[in-house]
Design goal:
Helices cover 77% and strands 0% of the residues. It is mainly alpha-helical.
Length: 192
């Protein structure tokens, strides 16, 4: 049980660390279009993202697939840019659109490679059985996502209710900031 606790704590701490900044920004941009009362849709979006990254994290951990890790510093912020642009379209602002879930899952596949190459493969060095670490580490990542969601919901409530702003303004602000940070990273890590 001690190993389980160690790995879920490592996943949680990683998700909330500076090393996971691009993942955090992705999650923030992912949920920017939703009203706080649509928290179930926020959870659904996070579920699809988590499902996507869990697939590639698992496949990477089992050495079933490999990915050029040199491209990740460019592709991960590019996923934020794509999501932010989607948020600014009419379809992307529709809180009932199912396309957001599929987009979250697809982009989550890319982030799973990021979790694997950035952190998971390093923390399990010397541990022959990745599967002992995979589930609790993934659980920690999910708990970190939920913590981010909670903070963002609180900030969203302050912005929408106390400051009396519209969700469109919140989405524009959050998606714009996320896109700006991600674009700078895309330029810095341009691979060609």
């Amino acid at each position: 049980m001690n190993t389980f606790n160690n790995y879920w704590r490592l996943g949680y701490e990683f998700m909330l660390s500076r090393d996971a900044l691009i993942h955090i920004i992705f999650i923030i941009v992912l949920i920017a279009v939703f009203m706080p009362r649509n928290w179930l849709k926020i959870l659904a979006s996070l579920f699809f993202f988590t499902f996507g990254f869990s697939i590639t994290l698992t496949l990477g951990a089992l050495n079933i697939i490999e990915f050029n890790k040199d491209l990740l510093p460019f592709l991960l912020p590019l996923s934020v840019v794509l999501l932010a642009v989607y948020n600014l379209t009419k379809v992307g602002q529709n809180q009932n659109s199912k396309l957001r879930y599929w987009l979250a899952g697809l982009l989550g596949l890319m982030h799973g490679f990021g979790f694997f190459t950035e952190y998971f493969s390093r923390l399990t060095l010397g541990d022959v059985n990745y599967l002992n670490a995979l589930f609790p580490f993934n659980l920690g990542l999910i708990l970190g996502e939920l913590a981010i969601m909670g903070v963002m919901l609180l900030l969203m409530i302050i912005f929408l209710l106390i400051l009396n702003k519209k969700i469109r303004d919140w989405n524009l602000f959050v998606s714009g900031c996320g896109m700006g940070i991600a674009l700078v990273n895309c330029i810095i890590y341009w691979p060609w």
